[in-house]
Amino acid sequence: MRIKDVAREAGVSTATVSHVINKTRRVTDETRERVLRAVERCGYYPNAHARSLASGRSNTLGLIISDISNPFFPELVKSIERAAFERGYDLILSNTNYEAKRTSSYVQRLIERKVAGVALMTSELDTTLVGELARQRVCVVFLDLGSAGRCMSNIVVDYDTGIEEAIAHLVALGHREIAFVGGPRRLRSAVKRLDAFRNSLARHLPETSPQVYDGNFKLDGGRQAARALLERGGEMPTAVVVANDMMALGVMQEFRERGVEVPRDVSVVGFDDIAFAQLAAPPLTTVSLPREELGRRAVEALIASVEHSEQQGTDIHISTRLVTRASTGRAPKRNAEGRPAAAADANTRRAAPPARDR
């Protein structure tokens, strides 16, 4: 079926059909409805490439994320895809694996594909690429990477409130030695979470010097940090705040294998509130970052910039809150070495050589 057939069916010119389909010129409501009915009767499918040439804009958005294996991101992708679909846009997904070089390559490829806009849901990005997108007139929404501008919107996550609630919760349970497991400090989001932790701890426990361990936002990074914490010697923290849930699950897994029980020996708090958090053993106390709201508002801002390019972008504020579950409890009693007594006994049992049959 061709556009000429639709025009004949609707009793209009092919140019009018093109304007209705591509929204390139205003026509009367009566004419638009007549054309749309003809399109439906004829079973006509417009050529997407031809439509982008006619309108000067494709109906495709790019989405760049950091780690598809982290459950946080599939949940975010789902909300973004849903919001884009409801507004008639397609989505191209790219996964960087936290590599800045791959991010740059994906941005260049999306520019070449003439996408209408890009959602940069990642921190591993050379900020000059944001400027390149602007020069190419590609609208963009990014995550904590700068400030809003023409065709550019910025998602601002309130890390401070959620982490403040986490520290207040732990202090109320009697914890005074609280460690932190953070993400790679080359990532802006990791630095913001660490700063929020330090600032909150300084307000609640100004005399303490927190132990800080660097991770990689992945399960194995959490395990390595927990191993370093347990092998450090000296006074062991009674609680650990972790910069994301994947590392928090790794921390809990390492503790469990070392005979350290959560929350009897040490309490653990995560960040993100992924679906697996409530399925952990025990269920994980964590700071909730709402992916549904984040994705929906990101798409709304991006499409607003695409369809009204003369308008200024916006700062999109996303709130966080603590979700309390069973991985946090009262601060444990300590032995003479300043370590939780039950944990120290468990480590001693693990370190002892196996008994031999006589």
Alpha-carbon distance between the two ends? 89 Å
Helix content range: 40-55%
How do the strands of the widest beta sheet line up side by side? 2-1-3-4-5-11
Please work out how many helical segments DSSP would assign.
13
Strand count, sense and barrel status of the largest sheet are: 6 strands, parallel
CATH architecture of the largest domain: 3-Layer(aba) Sandwich
Low-confidence stretches: 346-358
Number of strands: 12
Could you state the order of secondary-structure elements as H and E? HHHHEHEHEHEEHEHEHEHEEHEEH
Averaging pLDDT over every residue, what do you get? 87
Q: Percent of residues in beta strands?
A: 15-25%
Give the C-alpha Rg.
26 Å
Highest CATH level, the class of the largest domain: Alpha Beta
Question: Can you walk through the features of this model?
Answer:
This protein has 358 residues and is of the alpha/beta class. It has helices at 3-10, 14-22, 29-42, 48-55, 72-86, 100-112, 128-135, 159-172, 188-204, 219-231, 245-257, 291-307, 341-351; strands at 60-65, 90-95, 117-121, 139-143, 152-157, 178-182, 212-214, 239-242, 267-272, 285-288, 315-318, 321-323. The protein has two domains: 60-156 and 291-319, Rossmann fold (3-Layer(aba) Sandwich); 159-289 and 322-348, 3-Layer(aba) Sandwich (Rossmann fold), CATH 3.40.50. The chain contains 13 helices and twelve strands. The strands form two sheets. Strands 2-1-3-4-5-11 form a six-stranded parallel sheet, with helices on both faces. The protein has a six-stranded mixed sheet with strand order 7-6-8-9-10-12, with helices on both faces. Helix 11 (245-257) links the parallel strand 8 and strand 9 (267-272). The chain is elongated, with a radius of gyration of 26 Å. The chain starts with a helix and ends in a 7-residue tail after the last helix. Mean pLDDT is 87; it is low at 346-358.
